[in-house]
């Protein structure tokens, strides 16, 4: 499943919509990024997202805070961005330093600017099939599934991972499309047997090659949402590819779609704000 090609198509669509928004509103859609501390990987991710924003015709405003920032200071900063009239979407790069309550920081993002889909409001919207913003990685996975005509109706889907911005919303989106969803994690008993019965497997556990190729049912669809050092996913790719009908590579599968959805939802947020005003 070629996430790079599909993300490129999504970026083209987003660029056209951003250009139309500029023509209609007289300004570009605007994404504010917030980076706390000086983690090299996080800095690289933010720079990449800002570069992609620029290519799509989206203005980006970079906010950098020191690694000594407290939860209160970060919440105050995000609340100011949430109230800012020039900002359409807010992205808090995670993880944040250990002294910060990440959930409190996420919840400071106004729901109508939560283009990364990290707030409890966005999770509820996903669970109830409302029109809020999707968590970007699960949203990107659903676009991949649709692009490859995977029929989810009645399918047995296993999600391995339970994070609030990946595993849990992934299951909600699959359930909303009439799949029968089982949540698993690294401590699940008899995990190989559970995975062996799955028509769709989403691996988001954060452990390299945790899901073995021998577990995969012939003809299954395998989505590897993991990314570990050395460009290694959460699935043992070579073995899984022998059995799977469709499988995402790492890199080049889920990752590009995550950024694509972030930018698309930023343009969505700009249009929604303009409509309200």
From TrEMBL:
<comment type="subunit">
    <text>Homodimer.</text>
</comment>
<keyword id="KW-0521">NADP</keyword>
<dbReference type="GO" id="GO:0005829">
    <property type="term" value="C:cytosol"/>
</dbReference>
<dbReference type="InterPro" id="IPR020631">
    <property type="entry name" value="THF_DH/CycHdrlase_NAD-bd_dom"/>
</dbReference>
<keyword id="KW-0028">Amino-acid biosynthesis</keyword>
<dbReference type="GO" id="GO:0000105">
    <property type="term" value="P:L-histidine biosynthetic process"/>
</dbReference>
<dbReference type="GO" id="GO:0035999">
    <property type="term" value="P:tetrahydrofolate interconversion"/>
</dbReference>
<dbReference type="InterPro" id="IPR020630">
    <property type="entry name" value="THF_DH/CycHdrlase_cat_dom"/>
</dbReference>
<dbReference type="GO" id="GO:0009086">
    <property type="term" value="P:methionine biosynthetic process"/>
</dbReference>
<keyword id="KW-0658">Purine biosynthesis</keyword>
<dbReference type="InterPro" id="IPR036291">
    <property type="entry name" value="NAD(P)-bd_dom_sf"/>
</dbReference>
<keyword id="KW-0368">Histidine biosynthesis</keyword>
<comment type="pathway">
    <text>One-carbon metabolism; tetrahydrofolate interconversion.</text>
</comment>
<comment type="similarity">
    <text>Belongs to the tetrahydrofolate dehydrogenase/cyclohydrolase family.</text>
</comment>
<keyword id="KW-0378">Hydrolase</keyword>
<protein>
    <recommendedName>
        <fullName>Bifunctional protein FolD</fullName>
        <ecNumber>1.5.1.5</ecNumber>
        <ecNumber>3.5.4.9</ecNumber>
    </recommendedName>
</protein>
<dbReference type="InterPro" id="IPR020867">
    <property type="entry name" value="THF_DH/CycHdrlase_CS"/>
</dbReference>
<comment type="function">
    <text>Catalyzes the oxidation of 5,10-methylenetetrahydrofolate to 5,10-methenyltetrahydrofolate and then the hydrolysis of 5,10-methenyltetrahydrofolate to 10-formyltetrahydrofolate.</text>
</comment>
<dbReference type="GO" id="GO:0004477">
    <property type="term" value="F:methenyltetrahydrofolate cyclohydrolase activity"/>
</dbReference>
<dbReference type="GO" id="GO:0004488">
    <property type="term" value="F:methylenetetrahydrofolate dehydrogenase (NADP+) activity"/>
</dbReference>
<feature type="binding site">
    <location>
        <begin position="161"/>
        <end position="163"/>
    </location>
    <ligand>
        <name>NADP(+)</name>
    </ligand>
</feature>
<feature type="domain" description="Tetrahydrofolate dehydrogenase/cyclohydrolase NAD(P)-binding">
    <location>
        <begin position="135"/>
        <end position="272"/>
    </location>
</feature>
<dbReference type="Pfam" id="PF00763">
    <property type="entry name" value="THF_DHG_CYH"/>
</dbReference>
<feature type="domain" description="Tetrahydrofolate dehydrogenase/cyclohydrolase catalytic">
    <location>
        <begin position="1"/>
        <end position="116"/>
    </location>
</feature>
<keyword id="KW-0560">Oxidoreductase</keyword>
<keyword id="KW-0554">One-carbon metabolism</keyword>
<dbReference type="InterPro" id="IPR000672">
    <property type="entry name" value="THF_DH/CycHdrlase"/>
</dbReference>
<keyword id="KW-0486">Methionine biosynthesis</keyword>
<dbReference type="GO" id="GO:0006164">
    <property type="term" value="P:purine nucleotide biosynthetic process"/>
</dbReference>
<keyword id="KW-0511">Multifunctional enzyme</keyword>
<dbReference type="Pfam" id="PF02882">
    <property type="entry name" value="THF_DHG_CYH_C"/>
</dbReference>
<dbReference type="InterPro" id="IPR046346">
    <property type="entry name" value="Aminoacid_DH-like_N_sf"/>
</dbReference>
């Amino acid at each position: 499943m070629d996430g790079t090609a599909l993300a490129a198509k999504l970026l083209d669509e987003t660029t056209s919509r951003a250009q139309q928004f500029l023509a209609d509103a007289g300004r570009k859609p605007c994404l504010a990024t917030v980076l706390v501390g000086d983690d090299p990987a996080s800095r690289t991710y933010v720079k990449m997202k800002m570069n992609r924003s620029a290519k799509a015709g989206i203005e980006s405003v970079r906010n950098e805070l020191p690694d000594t920032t407290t939860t209160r200071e970060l919440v105050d900063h995000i609340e100011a961005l949430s109230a800012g009239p020039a900002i359409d979407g807010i992205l808090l790069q995670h993880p944040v330093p250990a002294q910060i309550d990440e959930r409190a920081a996420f919840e400071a993002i106004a729901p109508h600017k939560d283009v990364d889909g990290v707030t409890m409001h966005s999770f509820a919207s996903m669970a109830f099939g409302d029109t809020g913003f999707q968590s970007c990685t699960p949203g990107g996975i659903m676009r991949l599934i649709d692009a490859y005509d995977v029929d989810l109706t009645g399918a047995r889907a296993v999600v391995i991972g339970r994070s609030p911005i990946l595993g849990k919303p992934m299951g909600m989106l699959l359930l909303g499309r009439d799949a029968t969803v089982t949540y698993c994690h690294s401590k699940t008993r008899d995990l190989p047997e559970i995975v062996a019965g799955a028509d769709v497997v989403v691996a988001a556990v954060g452990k390299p090659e945790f899901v073995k190729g021998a577990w995969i049912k012939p003809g299954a669809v395998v989505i590897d949402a993991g990314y570990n050092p050395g460009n290694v996913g959460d699935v043992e790719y070579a073995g899984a590819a022998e059995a799977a009908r469709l499988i995402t590579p790492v890199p080049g599968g889920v990752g590009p779609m995550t950024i694509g959805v972030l930018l698309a939802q930023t343009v969505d947020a700009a249009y929604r704000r303009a409509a309200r005003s």
